[in-house]
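Good morning,

Both structures are done.
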Amino acid sequence: MCTRKCSKCIGITLLPLAACAIVSNILLYFPNGQVLQLSEITDLVWFFHGILGAGMLVILPAFMMLGAGRARCCANRCGMLLSVVLAVLGFAGGTYCAVISSLGLIGGPLCDTGDGEYLYPFRNASLEDNYLFNQTTWSICKEPENIILWNVILFSILLAIGVIEAILCLIQVVSGLAAFICGTCMRRRKVGMQ
C-alpha cells in the first residue's frame, strides 16, 4: 500500500477516536450525570488524559496524516519526516491516555461510603481483592449513584482508545520512515510515466 494512502486511512481513523476520547474524559467530570464539587471528582480525571493525551495530541498528527494523503502535501521526504515527528507525538498522547486510564481502573473511584466523607475505598487492595473482579464490593460506594460502573466504562473506553491510537501512530511512524528513506509512491508514478 502506498504510504500516502496508509497515512490518509490512519488520519481518518484517528479523528473520531480523538473526539470520543475528549467526550469520554469530559463525562468523567459528571458521574452519573451529576454535577459534583471539585473535591468529589476522582483525582486521575484531572490529568486530562482523554482531552490532552488521546485528544489534542492526536488531532495534530491526524490532520497531518490527512494532508499526507494528498499528493502536494507530503509527496516529499521533508513532509513525511514531519508526519513521523507528529505521529510520535500522537503515540505519546495515546500511551499517556492508556497509562492513566489503567491507573484509574486499578485504583477505583472517589466515592461516599455512607458517612458523608469522600474517599478511595478500593485503593491499596491487592489484585486478588480488586473491585473489578468482585462486583459484590461495589455496594460500598453510596454516592454518587453508580459511580463505579460509570468509572469502569469510561476508563475502559479511554484505555481502548489510547491503545488503538498508540498502535495507529506507531504504524504511521514506520510508514513515514519508510517513505522518508525510500521515497513516496508519488515519485514512483512520475518516474513510471516518463
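Second structure follows.
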Amino acid sequence: MRACKAWILSFLCVIFIAVGALAQDPHLGSVRVVFQTNYGDIEFGFFPTVAPQTVDHIFTLVRLGCFNTNHFFRVDKGFVAQVADVVGGRSAPMNEEQRKEAEKTVVGEFSDVKHVKGVLSMGRFEDPNSASSSFSILLGDAPHLDGQYAIFGRLTKGDETLKKLEQLPTRREGIFVMPTERITILSTYYYDTELERCEKDRSILKRRLTASAVEIERQRMKCFP
C-alpha cells in the first residue's frame, strides 16, 4: 500500500512538473519576424496558443510595415528593451490602412507564462486592455511582471544585437531608462520556417529523383545497349 501511494505521489509530481514546463515553454509558431536595426538584426517568434489576439494584431502590423522607421525608446540593462508605439514612434508617416490597425487595442491576454529573459511582453497603460503596439523584449528575468502583462512570443535570434543596445549610453526620464541616441528599426520582414523546411525537403527530393533517373538510364544503357 505504501509503495502504491508513493508511486501515485511520484506520478502526480511528474504531471505537475510537466504542466509547469508546458506553461513556461509554450508552443512557438513557425512564423519568424526580423527587425533590422542600425545595430543589427533581432528575430522573434510568436506564441499563438498563449495570446492569439495579440499575435494576430502584432503580425498584422508587421505585414503592413508599421514597425518600419520605428525605434526602441527604452533600453534598461538587464531588464527590457522596449519598442515604441508605432503611432508616435515612426519617423515616416502612416497610410490610412496602417493607422487604422495601429490605433487598435487588444484585450489583456495574461497567462501563466513567466517573464524570463528573451520573452516578448506587451506594454500597456493602467487599463489592462490598453495594449496597442509597444512591446518589450526581456533582457533578464522579471517575475514582478508575471500575470500583469501579455506575453506573446520570444526571441529566436539577436542576442548579440541586444548586448550592443545594452552598452549604449542612456539617460533616465522618470521610471524609464532611455538611450541617448535613436535605435531605429530600419526595416522588417517575416518568413515561415515550415515553408522553408518544405522547400529544402523538396529540393533534396528533386536531387534524389534526378540522381535516380540518371542511374536508371545508366543501367538501361548497360543492359540494353
